[in-house]
Amino acid sequence: MAALTTSRIEELILYSNHLTDSSCPHLASGIRNNQTLRTLNLSKNNLEGPHFTDLMAALTTSRIEELQLNNNFLTDSSCPHLAFGIRHSQTLRTLDLSYNNLEGPHFSDLMASLTASQIEELQLPYNRLTDSSCPQLASGIRNNQTLRTLNMCGNNLEGPHFRDLMAALTTSRIEELQLDNTHLTDSSCPHLASGIRNNQTLRILDLSWNNLKGPHFSDLMAALTTSRIEKLQLYSNYLADSSCFHLASGIRNNQTLRILNLSNNSLEGPHFRDLMAALTTSRIEELQV
């Protein structure tokens, strides 16, 4: 790692190298004053531990723009160190924390630091986050002016605090939001609706692998008409023929939607014709059923 400080390497991949927390001081010495390294991939190692703080401290003086830490056994106790690293980094734009376990009281530290960071893409899939994390997530994105992509797939966000996250979405600058496989049900639809209704930046919304069928699905579709969404993923949502009427109302006068994925539902029935009739006046270019 000492040699790295004098090298001209721009991308370093250390994926699946059995690195542990004891490697963090050496990693820190390598990146601390390196002026060329832009991408560092540390995925699928085991960096959780007391020395992880050394790595995050060194991040603040590096020029790294993309840091991949997915599958590193990181827990809630790592969040204060992650927070320190991203708060003071002037170059970090992409942070991948997928497949860790960040749920806990210190997750709020990470989210608080997000507001002062320059991060544009944050990956948080499969972090065992629950509804209780939504207020912290909300505080992180509410006034953030740089975040454009937020991936929350594979968590469990259904619950009363999900509305906090959706309320914060209206003042964020997020363009792509991935909420696939987050255990959302029909009761989440009013909150989803409030989140997208007046949002001016959201272009891609992935709601695949949830269970949105129910009476409140109409709220989501009504909000779609005033949103700026261009791509909507509703794959595997247990939608039935009775959902077609609401889908039709959502796409009939929408001026922005170009891609709609309704695969792996059960839309067969008399109301399917409503959906097809609405298609004739929509702007959809790609439909998957």
TrEMBL record:
Pfam family, one: LRR_1
Annotated transmembrane regions: none
SMART domains membership: LRR_RI
Entry protein name: Uncharacterized protein
